[in-house]
Amino acid sequence: MASVEKIDLGLVDTVVAESQGRPGERTFKVTAAGRRGRAIVWLEKEQLFQVALAIRQFVAATERPGDPDRYTPEYQAPASGIELEFKAVEMSLRHDRSTDVFTVEAASVESEATAESESDDEEEPIAVQFSFSRPSGVKLSEQALEVCAAGRPRCPLCGGPVDPGGHVCPKSNGHHKGEIKFA
After folding, report:
1. Whether 144 and 164 share a structural domain
2. What are the C-alpha distances in Å from 102 to residues 53, 152, 177?
3. Which residues, listed in sequence order, are joined to residue 18 by a DSSP beta bridge?
């Protein structure tokens, strides 16, 4: 297995959560851009939701430091502006209390090991990290939660997605296909 190339975009100017496609067929991405380059990280809806929820909970539970330290990127800047686009297999989020900066790390492979049957035509494994301020984190969290909620409505009985053509609910033995109204 090739070693994982780690790229640090440093403190980015913009970080945006988006989805593409119709409900039920959407794909999700986070785009981060700054002086060091730009990365588009494709991810699962649940990954995006968990990042947004973690930021929201952390911000609600902690106060902003009065005089945060100056942020310094963990790794040196790449030789030239980087343009990346890949599907994240693994993601992590951390917060540095001294600088009040969030950092997301996304990797195209699992951190420990990949399958032994790796073929030669596969892309090189890559990991990117980018950091953003608390206000940018709050904005990203709100945006990501909006994007996640904009999909198909949920069934009030089973929690499954309701397609425009209806929904066969397992909680009602598959017999109820209409809308359920609660008083």
Report:
1. no
2. 13, 30, 44
3. 29
* Structural domain harbouring 70: 5-151
Query: What number of other Cβ atoms are within 10 A of residue 24's Cβ?
Result: 11
Q: How many domains does the chain have?
A: 2
Q: To which H or E segment does residue 52 belong?
A: helix 45-61
Q: How many residues does the chain have?
A: 183
- For residue 140, the one-letter residue type is L
Please state, in angstroms and rounded to a whole number, the distance separating the CA atoms of residues 83 and 14. Answer: 14
Domain co-membership, 143 together with 163: no
Same domain, 110 and 179: no
Q: How far apart are CA 32 and CA 21, in angstroms?
A: 20
Distance CA 146, CA 127 (A): 26
Do residues 158 and 151 make contact, with C-beta atoms less than 8 angstroms apart?
Answer: no
Q: What is the pLDDT along the chain (183 residues), one digit of tens a residue?
A: 457 778 999 999 999 999 999 887 899 999 999 999 999 999 999 999 999 999 999 999 999 888 888 998 888 888 788 899 999 999 999 999 999 999 999 999 865 544 444 444 466 888 999 999 999 999 999 999 999 988 888 888 887 788 777 777 877 775 555 565 555
CA angle 33, 25, 85 (to 5 degrees): 25
Sheet holding 90-96, edge to edge: 5-11, 126-133, 101-107, 90-96
